[in-house]
Specification:
- By secondary structure, this protein is of the alpha+beta class.
- The chain has 2 domains: 6-152, Aminotransferase class 4, branched-chain amino acid transferase, N-terminal domain (D-amino Acid Aminotransferase, Chain A, domain 1, 2-Layer Sandwich); 163-322, D-amino Acid Aminotransferase, subunit A, domain 2 (D-amino Acid Aminotransferase, Chain A, domain 2).
- It contains 7 helices and 18 strands.
- Strands 1, 2, 3, 4, 5, 6, 7, 8 and 18 form a 9-stranded antiparallel sheet that branches. It has a 6-stranded mixed β-barrel with strand order 9-10-11-12-15-16.
- A hairpin with a 5-residue loop joins β16 and β17 (300-302).
- The chain binds pyridoxal-5'-phosphate and 2-OXO-4-methylpentanoic acid (COI).
- 2-OXO-4-methylpentanoic acid binds next to loops.
């Protein structure tokens, strides 16, 4: 086990010794390669560089109370990467290759899986890039699939304490983040101005409204939004947000715990009626929201400085499953025999 200050880790990049790679050429995937380099050697005309023909995923591995290493719903990440491939015409990584490479990279870097009780986990970042050279706008005929790992702490420095969020101007948001079912890198570059605006205003993340009418809530930066009222978990239905695996899981947990759930458009004006609101995602886990500040009108929606009871219950159940403390009735975790 590495000697790191695990409980002080931010959500950032820490070098781990190995990554795994696989190349797609002549219509098929090659052998899995292990690399100790942090760099890729890439053609100057590669489609990922020019046309953003690339997609990434994010999932986590947890060291449990029982010492076992669990990976959460990797098959859902594989499925979403496959739908990203369909969206931008990339070669598909099937479940078998996705899992084989994921398991291998975790095994190779197992000394970096944070100890139980530190609140940290090993983040896994799969990356699929078009490497073939094209100058016309067309899909590459060569691809590389890379997976690296990095130990991470909480996405928001607040951890499981309320974070403030900023509603940003439309002009600071160039594009929706999750276009339907796909998760492409270029979209995140388009969000950087908005993220900066939110940070400059002292907030942890921007809140995006729908691009057409600026009337409905879309997402919270790199996380989905949820609100709670009348024992109901409510989350936006929108074609321009990323379908979060965490959000889908929380919906199922909410039902298991006896709450009602609704997935429907949420008007900004409805914010005032929620008892609790939060952000959820692999990186964000469940992050309660304290204040939502509209930077255009200066209106502040205040949800208090403590996590609400329903968010707390959902958080404890989700994290409990991930760390092996709560029974995994849905079979979401795969225990890695490493
Ligand atoms: N929305 C966006 C834009 C994201 O980048 C992410 C994280 O990947 C999420 C939502 C949360 O998705 P998930 O729960 O699958 O990590
Ligand atoms: C994740 O939650 O895995 C994300 O991808 C967030 C991120 C883009 C930093």
């Amino acid at each position: 086990m590495q000697d790191l200050k695990w409980s002080e880790l931010p959500f950032g990049y820490v070098r781990t010794p190995y990554n795994v790679r696989c190349k797609y050429k002549n219509g098929k995937w090659g052998e899995i390669e292990v690399s100790d380099s942090e760099y890729v050697n890439i053609h100057i005309a590669a489609t990922c560089l020019h046309y953003g023909q690339e997609a990434f995923e994010g999932l986590k591995t947890y060291r449990g109370k029982d010492g076992k290493v669990r990976i959460f719903r990797w098959d859902e990440n594989a499925k979403r990467l496959q739908s990203s491939s369909e969206g931008i015409l990339m070669a598909k990584v099937d479940d078998k290759l996705f899992f084989e490479m994921t398991k291998k990279v975790v095994d190779l870097n197992k000394d970096f899986i944070p100890p139980y009780g530190t609140g940290a986990s090993l983040y896994i970042r799969p990356l699929l890039i078009g490497t073939g050279a094209e100058v016309g706008v067309k899909p590459a005929d060569e691809y590389e699939f890379i997976i690296f790992t990095t130990p991470v702490g909480p996405y928001f420095k607040e951890g499981f304490k309320p974070v403030n969020i900023a509603i940003i101007k439309d002009s600071d948001r160039a594009a929706p983040l999750g276009t339907g079912l796909i998760k492409i890198g270029g979209n995140y570059a388009a969000s950087l101005r908005g993220v900066k605006r939110a940070h400059d205003a002292g907030c942890g993340s921007p809140m995006y409204l729908d691009c057409v009418n600026r009337k409905f809530i879309d997402e919270i930066g790199a996380a989905n939004f949820f609100g709670i009222k009348n024992n109901t978990y409510i989350t936006p239905k929108s074609s321009s947000i990323l379908p979060s695996i965490t959000n889908k899981s929380i919906e199922e947990l909410a039902q298991l715990l006896g709450y009602k759930t609704e997935r429907r458009p949420i008007e900004l004006t409805e914010l005032e009626t929620f008892e609790e609101v939060g952000a959820c995602g692999t990186a964000a886990v469940i992050s309660p929201i304290g204040k939502i500040i509209d930077l255009e009108t200066n209106k502040i929606y205040d949800f208090g400085d403590k996590p609400g009871p329903v968010s707390t219950k959902l958080y404890e159940t989700l994290v409990g499953i991930q760390y092996g403390e709560v029974e995994d009735t849905f079979n979401w975790c795969t225990i890695l025999d490493i």
